Amino acid sequence: MKKVLWLVGIAVALIALCAGLSPVQSAPANLTFAVNDQSDAIDNNLGDGVCLAAIGKCTLRAAIQEGNVQYAAHAGSLNTITVPGGTIISGPRVYPLTLGGSAEDNAATGDLDIKSNLLIQGTGAGALVSASGLGDRIFHVKQPPSGPINVTFLRIFIADGTASDSGPNTDVGGSGILIENFQGNVTLTFSRVLSNTVTTPAFQGCRGRGHTALRRYAHPQ
């Protein structure tokens, strides 16, 4: 009888211990999102761990948004976005950005704001993310409060972004990729940043030199 009571006591203690675990202690494994639609649509339910837009598909924008939210809750994790690419004959598959609206930092409109450790990998001959007609840059790598992040583009082509060197010395330039605060790492493997444009007002002279497709910037102190 004493042995039975002892075993019951251990079981109760284990249940109490598990119930006391915080969400951080029970952090989920790294997530993988599989893009299956070429359109540009936001995630339908941010924070549920599922990439799903209102159209019932997973878009690149929705996957990045969900990855950002998951990383905010579980800093240090590495999420992966798989993007179907084209073939050697057809060339890269195109993913156009169409949701206009600048000065927004949650990837809901305009450029794709990345705030998590992330691997974006195209399959086959790769995927081309185009901002033609959007009037904005393509990717904005923003450092979250938890610290520097690492972003890798694999077989991803980044094209047709636009940005300006007018305004403050922070959020300018970087029409293809803008990297914030000189922190973290952005790696391009079998990827290219091409056909992107930065406009420089005449009164600013050569300020735009070197600030074209790929740029890092630091916030003023």
Descriptors:
disordered C terminus; four-stranded parallel β-sheet; alpha/beta; disordered N terminus; five-stranded parallel β-sheet; 2 helices; 221 residues; 15 strands; 27% strand
What does this structure look like?
With 221 residues, the chain is α/β, with parallel strands linked by helices. It has one domain. 14% of the residues lie in helices and 27% in strands. The chain is built from two helices and 15 strands. The protein has helices spanning 2-19, 60-73; strands spanning 32-34, 78-83, 93-96, 112-114, 117-122, 127-130, 139-141, 150-154, 156-159, 162-164, 177-180, 185-189, 192-194, 197-199, 214-217. Strands 1-2-5-8-12 form a five-stranded parallel sheet, covered by helices on one side. The chain is globular. Residues 1-26, 203-212 and 216-221 have low confidence and may be disordered.
Question: What layout of secondary structure does this protein have?
Answer:
Blueprint: H1 2-19, E1 32-34, H2 60-73, E2 78-83, E3 93-96, E4 112-114, E5 117-122, E6 127-130, E7 139-141, E8 150-154, E9 156-159, E10 162-164, E11 177-180, E12 185-189, E13 192-194, E14 197-199, E15 214-217
Parallel strand pairs: 1-2, 2-5, 3-6, 4-7, 5-8, 6-9, 7-11, 8-12, 9-13, 10-14, 11-15
